[in-house]
Amino acid sequence: MLKQPFFRHWVLSCFMVMANGLAFAQSSDAPQSLNQQVQDLKQQVIALNRDLFILEEELLFPANTQVAVFLSMNVGKFFALDAVTLKLDDKVVTNYLYTDKQTDALHRGGVQRLYLGNLKTGEHELVAVFTGKGPQGRDYRRGATLIFDKTSQAKKIELKIMDSTATEQPEFTVKEW
Predict the structure, then answer these.
(1) Is the separation of the CB atoms in 82 and 56 below 8 Å?
(2) Coil, strand, or helix at residue 136?
(3) Which of 80, 91, 125, 172 would bridge 144 by S-S if both were Cys, CB 3.0 to 4.6 A apart?
(4) Mean pLDDT over all residues of the chain?
(5) Which residues pair with 170 in a beta bridge?
């Protein structure tokens, strides 16, 4: 059985070969309509690629089993993020190391999708472990846990890192959407 990414790559490769062949066959004295046909074909390939990507996402991650986990940050004076480890039901599903540019993007309001996967309905446990530098440059490792019930609807979960000015410590929260 062919996997979806292979099939999409194969279809796009066939279209690109056809488009390149048409472009090669075109000479400087060929009519403008052939050039327009090549451009139209390239636009169709781009549209097909987008449609195949959407279809692939729907087939691999149907809404009734889909779980998505996102990460966002607020301020960031008391915590410099280095890495996140994400576990679902005691199984590590992702580890992510951050560069300065990536943490800067999160500080400016960016949201990162850490995980997209499938879960059966029922109760599940999500554990996120954050490592980085805390107040006064000390090594810092904190976790956040959420026990949630997966229904037949897609589940979206946000991990948020916020500064607490009252305690001058970072806070790690988990929120279901």
Answers:
(1) no
(2) helix
(3) 172
(4) 84
(5) 163
